[in-house]
Design a protein that fits this description.
mainly alpha; disordered N terminus; Four Helix Bundle (Hemerythrin (Met), subunit A); 144 residues
Length: 144
C-alpha cells in the first residue's frame, strides 16, 4: 500500500482538454485510457490486492493495444507518411509494458508510483507530440 497520497498525485491520470487531438474516436479512447489509469492508481493507493490491481493492469494493457490498433488503422487508411515510426513507438511501449506485466504477474516486481508516472508521462507526451502530429493529416484526408 502507498504510505501517503499527495495532492498532486490525485490528478495523476486527469484528462485535460489540451490532450484532445480533434478526432472524436481517438479522443474518446484516450479519455478511457486515462479513466483506467485512474482506476489502477486508486486500487493501488487504497491497498487493493495484487489480483485486483493485476486485473485492472490487464484491462489497461488490452485497451491500449486495441487503441493502438485503431490509431494505426486510421493512419494506414489516410496514407500517413510517418506511420511506421508511429507504430514503432506503439510497439516499443507495448513490449515494455508486457514485460512489466509478466514480471508483476510472477510476483517479481510491484506496481509503484514510478511505474504509474512513467505510464502517465508516456501517454500524455505521446498524445501531445505524436498523436497531435498525425491528427491534422488524418483529418485532412477525411478518414476520421
Amino acid at each position: 500500500m502507498l504510505a501517503a497520497v499527495s495532492a498532486d498525485r490525485l490528478g495523476m491520470f486527469e484528462w485535460k482538454p489540451e490532450y484532445g487531438v480533434g478526432i472524436e474516436m481517438v479522443d474518446s479512447q484516450h479519455q478511457q485510457l486515462f479513466a483506467i489509469g485512474r482506476e489502477l492508481y486508486a486500487a493501488m493507493s487504497s491497498g487493493k490486492g495484487t489480483a485486483t490491481v493485476g486485473n485492472i493492469l490487464d484491462r489497461l494493457i488490452q485497451y491500449t493495444k486495441s487503441h493502438f490498433a485503431a490509431e494505426e488503422a486510421l493512419q494506414r487508411k489516410a496514407g500517413y507518411p510517418n506511420y511506421l515510426n508511429h507504430k514503432k513507438k506503439h510497439d516499443e511501449l507495448t513490449k515494455q509494458v508486457l514485460e512489466f506485466q509478466a514480471e508483476f504477474a510472477a510476483g517479481r516486481v510491484a506496481l509503484s508510483i514510478q511505474v504509474l508516472e512513467f505510464l502517465r508521462t508516456w501517454l500524455t507526451q505521446h498524445i501531445q507530440v505524436e498523436d497531435t502530429a498525425y491528427a491534422p493529416y488524418v483529418k485532412s484526408k477525411a478518414v476520421a
